[in-house]
Design goal:
- The structure is a single chain.
- The chain has 2 domains: 246 residues, no CATH class; 152 residues, no CATH class.
- It contains 21 helices and 4 strands.
- The two termini are 15 Å apart.
């Protein structure tokens, strides 16, 4: 049954709000398209690859934070420099190789998603091609401040965070070509049955590997000889920066999360959109912030990975920690309080599926409104608080399961003001969720009464 307000009461129509949403052809089509988009081969492979290497960047945040907070508080002068070798070493193994680290991970995940049984070979080809397309001479600055060009070395401008998108593109393209070539039987070398499997697998892909790396070497030679350029630099200039510039701008970011959370209200996880369109880009911003902080330079980006969990998705998608608080403080409905109490523990660690599907929020028209709008409001509060220097920019990548209050303090390397702003965001969320929670409970109560009446008549 469907109940709707009309001059002081509810009247009964033919279907419930959930049924009406489920039967809406447009919404069904929108959901279908969104699911297909989120499960595209390349986007799914990107999500898988970044999930694998995310711990690396979290550890990078730890090294950066220790170097610039704890060690600075405890040591001075030469002693401080010796201790900071610890954080610098972590930076060298994480942020400074981010561009070449992401390529083999993408190669492996994409090969597996393409049902290619030699994922390690695909990872090796992606890594090799990433180095092939890098320039053979790099500009460096000496300690005296003189600019020189050297050969036989690699610059972190290509291997580090600024080369991440280049690593992504090369990993995707190289793996796709390699897998297709490796599946051509005429290009496979078979050494017989008595050869060890590892050796046999290597020779089987020898010709495809030769063709693949030769193609990338030709591209590198043409770009260097004719245009005095390189592929990683071109990708950064023409693809990475424009795409990242829009998607991580305030407008692009809010638009993506608006539709991502709207999708979740129909039962499809918001990462179908945000995980594909935003996660790699905000991670690049996060890594560049950490690198700038480690080098004592100006922090470039407001929106980054830690910003998401600090202000956009506090307590999980839709920032439902505010709804849990609103229910526990103001609701008198026993079932709602039970769901909120059970959801509080996971919600503290930003896991809120029990709330989304148990309260529920999905297909619950009153609750859909704050669930979609509040993350945008939280984003605006956090963004402008940062923009006007009321709080520090995020410079440490914290795990997404880090509880509220602790998360923004760690992410800003110990700025207590970020904690205050997050508390304000949570409080605003309680006020926003509260009236819609009351409406939802009234509708649920009326539906229960109607169901009892229908059962009695039957």
């Amino acid at each position: 049954m469907f109940y709707q307000y009309e001059k002081g009461g509810l009247f009964m129509a033919k279907e419930t709000s959930s049924e009406k949403l489920q039967n809406n052809a447009f919404l069904n089509k929108f959901t279908e398209i969104a699911v297909k988009f989120g499960n595209l081969l390349y986007l799914r492979s990107l999500r898988d690859a970044f999930a694998v290497i995310l711990p690396v960047f979290i550890i990078a945040g730890l090294g950066t934070m220790l170097n610039n907070t704890v060690f600075v508080w405890l040591f001075k002068g030469a002693t401080l420099a010796k201790w900071q070798v610890f954080g610098n070493a972590i930076t060298n193994g994480t942020l400074n190789v981010a561009g070449v680290l992401v390529a083999p991970m993408i190669g492996y995940c994409l090969a597996k998603n393409m049902n290619f049984d030699n994922g390690i070979a695909a990872a090796a080809m992606s890594l090799a091609c990433t180095f092939i397309v890098m320039p053979q001479s790099v500009p460096l600055t000496t300690l005296a401040g003189k600019s020189v060009t050297v050969t036989g070395g690699y610059s972190t401008l290509w291997t580090g965070t600024q080369g991440m998108f280049g690593g992504i593109i090369v990993g995707l393209v190289a793996t796709t070509i390699f897998v297709k070539l490796a599946n051509v039987k005429k290009l496979q070398i078979h050494l017989g049955e008595n050869i060890p499997p590892a050796v046999s697998a290597s020779f089987s892909v020898l010709i495809p590997a030769l063709i693949l790396m030769s193609c990338f070497a030709i591209i590198t030679a043409l770009l260097s000889g004719i245009f005095n350029s390189d592929l990683i630099g071109l990708i950064k200039t023409w693809i990475q920066e424009p795409l990242r510039g829009f998607n991580t701008s305030l407008v692009g970011y809010c638009v993506i999360y608006f539709f991502a959370n709207l999708l979740f209200t129909f039962g499809i996880h918001q990462t179908v959109l945000s995980g594909s369109l935003l996660d790699p880009l905000v991670l690049i911003n996060m890594n560049q912030n950490m690198a700038a902080y480690a080098a004592h330079k100006a922090i470039p980006y407001i929106i980054n990975t830690s910003f998401v969990s600090s202000f956009t998705l506090v307590g999980g998608s839709g920032s439902t920690i505010s709804l849990i608080i609103a229910i526990l403080l103001f609701s008198k409905v026993k079932s709602s309080r039970q769901v909120a109490a059970l959801s509080l523990g996971p919600g503290i660690f930003n896991i809120n599926e029990p709330m989304i599907f148990g309260y529920p929020i999905v297909f619950n028209l009153p609750m859909m409104i704050p669930f979609v709008l509040f993350p945008i409001i939280g984003t605006l509060i956090g963004y402008y608080a940062t923009y006007f220097n009321l709080i520090s920019r995020m410079v440490v990548l914290v795990p997404w399961t880090t509880p509220p209050i602790i998360g923004p303090w760690l992410a800003t390397a110990g700025d207590w003001r970020a904690v205050v702003v997050q508390i304000i965001v949570i409080a605003v969320g309680v006020l926003l969720y509260l009236p819609f929670m009351k409406i939802s409970e009234r509708v649920a109560a009326q539906e229960a009464k109607m169901d009892e009446a229908d059962s009695a008549e039957a």
